[in-house]
User: Which sequence fits this backbone?
C-alpha cells in the first residue's frame, strides 16, 4: 500500500513538473507579400542550407554564427527576389519583429545576392552552441554591420510589405 | 407664507433654468486635431473605423467619468485613473465595485495615441478592445454591456449625444467603446521640464543633467563610463518605446505576464515597459505595485536584479563594476537619476481642464 502511495506521489510530481515545463516551441511566422506564408520552428529551420557569418560582439572578439540565409527563407515563401527584384518590387521591405515588440527593417535589395555580397542570416547557434534564451532561439546576424542594433534577438515574425 | 412660496418658486425656476442651460451645452463639432511635438513622431494609432471627432471626444469624456457604467453606480474609469495622479490611483492594486481588488496596478493613461498593445501583458490590440475589459470585469466595473446600454438609454443626456456623434440615438457597446477610446487618444502629455529642455525652453540643473546622462548611457567600466542604461527600454522623447521585458523583479514571477498567452518560458514575468512620463506622480510602481518610492525602484536596478531564463538581455551583465550583475550605482548617482525622473512631471497635463471630470458641471 505504502509503495503504491509513493509511486503515485512520484507520478503526480512528475506530471506537475511536466505541466510547468511543457511550454510551446518558439516559432517565426513569415507573412505579408508572400505566395506561401511560413511557420518556422527548429525542425523546419534545420531543413535549409546552413551557413556561417563571423562578427565582432560587444566583447570585441570575433564570433562565428551559424544559421540560414534570410534570402533562402524569403525565396521559399515566394518573395520577389532575384530576377523579380525590379520595378515596383524595389519598394518592398522586410520588417523583422522580436518577442519584446522591437522591430527593424531591411530593404529587399539589402538581402539579395544580385545586389550585395554582404550576408544576412537568421542564426540559431554561436560558436557551435545554441543561442542563450535571451538572444534566441533565432537572431538576425548581419555581416560587417558596425552597430549591433539590427542584429535583432528573439525573432518571432518576418513580414514583407510594400512601402506606402 | 405666500411670499416665501414666491421666493422659493423663483429659486426653483432659476435653478431649473441653469440646469437646463447646462444640459444644452453646445457640443463642439468637427475633426479633432491632435497637437504634439514633432519629435514624438507621427506613428500614431487611430483605427480607420473610429476617426477622432470633437463630438466623439466630448461624449467619450462623459462616459470615461460615468459611474452608471458600473454595477453599483459608484465606479467610473476615473476612479482608478485619476487625472491628478497622471491617471493612476495611488494604490498597489486598484479597488473596483464592491471593494474587489484588481489583479494588477493601475496604469497611467498618457500618450496612448502612440501605443499599439495595451495592458501590462499587451493582450489588447486596440483601445476599443481594451475598454470592454474594465467595463465587465467583476473586480473593476462589473456590469454587462447590455446593462450599461440599458442604463444610458434611460438617461436624458446620452441618447441625444449618441445621435450627434453617430447619426442616430442607438446606444451600443461598440459605440461606447469607440467614444471612450477617442477621449483617451487626446490625453497627450508633452510639457514636462524634459520636453521643455528638448525644445530649448528649460535649463536643467547639474543634478538633472548628470541624471539624464546616466539614464541615456550604458555602463562601460573598462572605459570608465558610468551609466544606468534606462534608455534602452524607456528611451526617446516620449520616454516610451513599445517593448515587453522581464526586468528582474523575481526569479520566478508569480504573475506569468505574457507567458499566460504565449506559453513560452522566455515570456514569464515579461511585462510592458511602462511610460516614465509623470513617474513621480504614479507611485506605487511595477505591475503589482511592490515599490512605494522611486528610491526603491532605483535600488532594484542598482542592486537587486534577479536572474532567470526570461531576464531581459539588456539587464544581463550591465554593471558599473567589472563582472557585476546589476548596475551598482553610487548614492550620489541614484539621487541624480531621480532628479532626472522628476523632470518628467507634466503639471499642465494633470490640470488640463479638457481632461477633467465633466459631470461636476453638468449633473445628469
Assistant:
Amino acid at each position: 500500500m505504502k509503495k503504491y502511495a509513493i509511486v503515485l506521489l512520484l507520478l503526480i510530481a512528475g506530471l506537475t513538473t511536466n505541466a510547468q515545463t511543457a511550454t510551446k516551441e518558439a516559432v517565426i511566422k513569415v507573412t505579408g507579400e508572400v505566395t506561401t506564408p511560413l511557420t518556422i520552428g527548429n525542425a523546419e529551420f534545420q531543413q535549409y542550407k546552413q551557413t556561417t557569418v563571423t562578427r565582432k560582439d560587444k566583447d570585441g572578439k570575433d564570433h562565428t554564427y551559424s544559421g540560414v540565409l534570410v534570402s533562402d527563407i524569403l525565396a521559399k515563401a515566394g518573395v520577389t527576389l532575384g530576377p523579380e527584384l525590379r520595378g515596383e518590387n524595389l519598394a518592398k521591405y522586410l520588417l523583422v519583429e522580436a518577442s519584446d515588440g522591437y522591430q527593424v527593417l531591411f530593404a529587399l535589395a539589402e538581402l539579395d545576392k544580385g545586389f550585395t555580397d554582404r550576408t544576412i542570416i537568421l542564426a540559431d547557434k554561436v560558436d557551435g552552441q545554441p543561442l542563450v534564451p535571451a538572444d534566441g532561439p533565432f537572431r538576425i546576424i548581419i555581416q560587417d554591420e558596425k552597430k549591433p542594433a539590427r542584429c535583432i534577438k528573439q525573432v518571432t515574425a518576418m513580414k514583407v510589405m510594400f512601402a506606402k | 407664507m405666500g411670499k416665501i412660496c414666491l421666493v422659493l418658486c423663483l429659486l426653483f425656476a432659476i435653478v431649473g433654468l441653469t440646469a437646463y442651460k447646462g444640459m444644452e451645452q453646445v457640443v463642439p463639432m468637427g475633426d479633432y486635431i491632435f497637437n504634439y511635438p514633432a519629435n514624438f513622431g507621427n506613428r500614431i494609432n487611430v483605427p480607420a473605423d473610429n476617426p477622432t471627432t470633437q463630438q466623439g471626444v466630448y461624449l467619450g469624456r462623459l462616459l470615461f467619468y460615468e459611474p452608471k457604467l458600473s454595477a453599483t453606480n459608484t465606479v467610473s474609469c476615473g476612479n482608478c485613473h485619476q487625472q491628478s495622479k497622471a491617471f493612476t490611483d495611488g494604490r498597489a492594486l486598484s479597488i473596483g465595485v464592491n471593494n474587489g481588488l484588481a489583479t494588477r496596478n493601475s496604469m497611467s493613461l498618457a500618450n496612448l495615441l502612440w501605443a499599439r498593445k495595451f495592458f501590462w501583458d499587451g493582450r489588447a490590440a486596440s483601445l476599443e478592445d481594451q475598454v470592454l475589459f474594465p467595463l465587465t470585469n467583476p473586480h473593476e466595473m462589473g456590469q454587462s454591456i447590455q446593462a450599461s446600454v440599458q442604463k444610458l438609454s434611460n438617461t436624458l443626456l446620452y441618447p441625444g449625444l449618441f445621435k450627434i456623434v453617430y447619426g442616430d440615438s442607438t446606444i451600443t457597446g461598440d459605440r461606447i467603446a469607440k467614444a471612450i477610446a477617442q477621449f483617451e487618444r487626446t490625453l497627450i502629455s508633452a510639457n514636462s521640464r524634459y520636453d521643455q529642455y528638448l525644445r530649448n525652453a528649460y535649463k536643467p540643473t547639474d543634478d538633472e543633467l548628470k541624471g539624464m546622462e546616466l539614464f541615456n548611457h550604458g555602463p562601460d567600466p573598462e572605459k570608465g563610463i558610468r551609466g544606468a542604461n534606462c534608455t534602452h527600454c524607456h528611451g526617446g522623447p516620449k520616454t516610451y518605446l513599445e517593448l515587453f521585458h522581464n526586468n528582474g523583479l523575481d526569479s520566478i514571477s508569480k504573475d506569468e505576464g505574457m507567458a499566460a498567452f504565449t506559453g513560452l518560458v522566455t515570456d514569464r514575468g515579461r511585462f510592458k515597459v511602462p511610460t516614465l512620463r509623470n513617474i513621480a506622480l504614479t507611485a506605487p510602481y511595477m505591475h503589482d505595485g511592490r515599490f512605494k518610492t522611486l528610491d526603491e525602484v532605483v535600488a532594484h536596478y542598482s542592486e537587486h536584479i534577479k536572474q532567470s531564463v526570461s531576464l531581459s538581455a539588456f539587464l544581463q551583465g550591465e554593471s558599473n563594476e567589472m563582472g557585476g550583475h546589476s548596475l551598482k550605482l553610487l548614492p550620489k548617482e541614484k539621487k541624480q537619476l531621480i532628479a532626472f525622473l522628476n523632470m518628467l512631471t507634466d503639471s499642465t497635463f494633470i490640470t488640463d481642464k479638457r481632461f477633467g471630470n465633466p459631470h461636476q458641471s453638468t449633473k445628469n
